[in-house]
Amino acid sequence: MTWTPAEVEQLFALPFVDLLFAAQQVHREHHDARAVQLSTLLSIKTGACPEDCAYCPQSIRYDTGLEREALLPLATVRERAGAAKAAGATRFCMGAAYRSPKQKDLERIVAMVREVRALGLETCATLGMLTPAQALQLKAAGLDYYNHNLDTSAEFYGEVITTRVYQDRLDTLAAVRDAGIHVCCGGIIGMGEAVRDRAALLATLASLPAPPESVPINQLVPVPGTPLADAPALDPFDFVRTIAVARIVLPRATLRLSAGRETMSDELQALCFLAGAGSIFYGERLLTTGNPDVERDRALLGRLGLTSAGTLPRDAAA
Question: Is 185 labeled as catalytic in the residue annotation?
C-alpha cells in the first residue's frame, strides 16, 4: 500500500488509545509481539566528520569535546563483537563517521564484516554515502544490513543538514538495495520538525521501491556544542505516536527503538513496545551517546514478559 503525507498525518491525529490499538493489531499480524531483537552498535571510527548535521557531535564543525578515534583494529572489533554475542545480541552494527568511506578504509571494514559474520552474528554498517561499487563490495563480504537514515522530511532536511542533499541519501539507499543488502533507514524525532514532517518522512520510507526492512526511530539526544543542543524537549507521547504510525505505514519492517533510550522511563519504553517497536540497541553506548546498560535492559524485558528473537517478520519466516 502507498501512503501520501496527508494520509499519514491523519493517523497522527487519531486519539492516542485508538492509534495504539490499530498499531498493535498490525504488529501482531506480521510479528511476534512478545519478541524483541537485540543489536549492539560499535563506533569503529569516531569523530572528524566533515558534514554539518546539526544533531551530531561527530561533526568537525562543532566543539563537543568528543575525542577523535581512527579506524579500530580488526582484533578489537572481533573482540567487541564476541562480547556482544555473549551478552545476547544477534546483530552487530559498525558505525564510522565518514561523509563517504575511502577505498583503503572500506577494504579494512570488509575484513571486519567477514570476521563478525564468522561469529554467527548478523552484520550491519553505517559509513555514510556509498557508490554502487562500494555497496557491491560490502555485499560480497556478507553484509546483511546497511544503515543510512533519511533523518526527516525532504522539506525540513535543509534546516538540519546543508553539506549534502536529500537525493544523496536516496541514491545511497538505491545503491544498497540494488546490491542486495537489506536496508536500514529511519529518522530522528525532536529536531524542531512539525508533525507533517514526521508524516512525510514515513510516507517517503513507505513509498521507496522496496520499503526498508529495518527502521530506526531515534529521539534527539541534545549534545552541548551542536546547533540542536537547546532543542525543546519532545513530548513522550509524540514519540510513541511516531512509532505507532510507523508500525501501520510500514507493517513488515522491524521498528528499532534507537537513540534517546537512556533518558526514557521503563513505562515509556513499554509503550513503545506496545506501539510496535520490535528491536533495541543493547549495550552501554551507541556511537557516541549513552544507552541503558545490559542488566537494566534484561530486567525490563523480563518484567514485560518479552524475549529476544531474530528479525524476520512472522509471515516472512513461515
Answer: no
